[in-house]
Amino acid sequence: MADKKKKTAPAKEEPEQQPQQTPEQEPQQAAADTAAEEAKKALAEKEDQYLRLAAEYDNYRKRTAKEKESAWIEAKAQTVLAFLPVYDNLERALKQQTADEAYAKGVEMTMKGFQDVLTKLGVEVIPALGETFDPSFHNAVMHVEDENAGENTVVEVFQSGFRLGEKVIRFAMVKVAN
C-alpha cells in the first residue's frame, strides 16, 4: 500500500493590513491627497506652458532666420539691379564696331570681369534667345510672324534678364514669334 500523502492547500497569504486611521487622521490624509493632486495639476500646467514656450521660441528662431535670409537676398538683388545699366552699356559697347583694338579688348575684359562678379554673387542670366516664351522670366515687347521660328519662340533679346536663385531681378525684354 502506498502511503497516501495528504495534500494540503498552500497557505493563503494575507495582504498586509494597513493601519487603521483614526478619525483625526482622515481629514489630514484627505488634505494631503488634495494637495498632491493640486501639485500634480500645477506641474502638468507648468510643463505644458514650458513646452508651448519652447515651441514658440523654435518657431520664432526659424522665422527670423528665414526673414534674415530673405532680407539678404533682397538687398543683394537690389544692389545688382542698380548695376545692370552698366551691364547694358557694356553690352552695347561690345556690339559697336571700332577701329581701336585696344579699346575693344578693354571693353571685353571689363564685361568679362563684371560677368564674373555676377556669377560669384549667384546671379544668372536668364536664357532667352531661341527659348520658348515664359512670362515668368520674359517680358514680350514685340510679336512677329516668322515661319522659320516655332510658336511662342523668342527670336530677339532687347535686354538681358537676370535672376538670383528663384528670384527674378529683371525680366528679359524680348521679341516673340507667333
Quick overview:
The chain is of the alpha+beta class.
Based on CA atoms alone, the radius of gyration comes out at 41 Å
Give the uncertain stretches in residue-range form.
none
The main β sheet shows up as: 3 strands, antiparallel
Task: Report the structural category.
Answer: alpha+beta
Shape: elongated
Provide mean pLDDT, rounded: 88
DSSP strand tally:
6
Order the strands across the largest sheet as they lie in space.
Answer: 1-4-5
What fraction of residues sit in β-strands? Answer: 15-25%
Helix content: 40-55%
Helix-strand pattern, N to C?
Answer: HHEEEEEE
Count of helix runs: 2
Report the span from N to C terminus: 118 Å
Overview of the molecule:
This protein is an alpha+beta fold and 178 residues long. Helices cover 51% and strands 18% of the residues. It has two helices and six strands; from the N terminus they run H-H-E-E-E-E-E-E. The chain has helices at residues 25-95, 101-120, and strands at 123-126, 138-144, 153-159, 161-164, 167-170, 172-177. The strands form two sheets. Strands 1-4-5 form a three-stranded antiparallel sheet. Strand 4 and strand 5 (167-170) form a beta hairpin. Helix 1 (25-95) packs antiparallel against helix 2. The longest helix has 71 residues, at 25-95. The radius of gyration is 41 Å and the shape is elongated. The mean pLDDT is 88.
